[in-house]
Amino acid sequence: MRKTLEDLYYGNIIPHEKRISAKSELQRMVSRAAECESKLTKLLNDEGKELFSVFMSAQQEIDGITAIDNFILGFRLGVRLMIDCMDENDITDGR
């Protein structure tokens, strides 16, 4: 336990960092999105490209906020599960 806490303190654990497998469904979708973005950008005039850029930035902010919120919710659920496991008053006498 101490090693995990030390790793977290020293920045050796980065919960939001994840490598994408080359043949995963996620990688396939990332590639598809990049291809669509490239094709769409070619179709837009300068004003459309600027608006699309603003849209993409806003979506990235939304994704970041959502990722943080989901991490916190998952962490809290994990802590609640650990607390429930530690509750010795919850054990029945076999009935």
Write structural notes for this entry.
- This protein has 95 residues and is mainly α.
- The protein is 72% helix and 0% strand.
- The protein has 2 domains: 1-43, no CATH class; 45-95.
- It has helices spanning 2-9, 25-43, 46-86.
- The chain starts with a helix and ends in a 9-residue tail after the last helix.
- The model has no long low-confidence stretch (mean pLDDT 89).
Structural class: mainly alpha
| Biggest sheet overview | none
- Large-scale geometry: elongated
Rg (CA only): 22 Å
Portion in beta strands: under 5%
Write the topology of this structure.
Blueprint: H1 2-9, H2 25-43, H3 46-86
Features:
95 residues; mainly alpha; 2 domains; 3 helices
How do you describe this structure in short?
This protein has 95 residues and is mainly α. The protein has helices spanning 2-9, 25-43, 46-86.
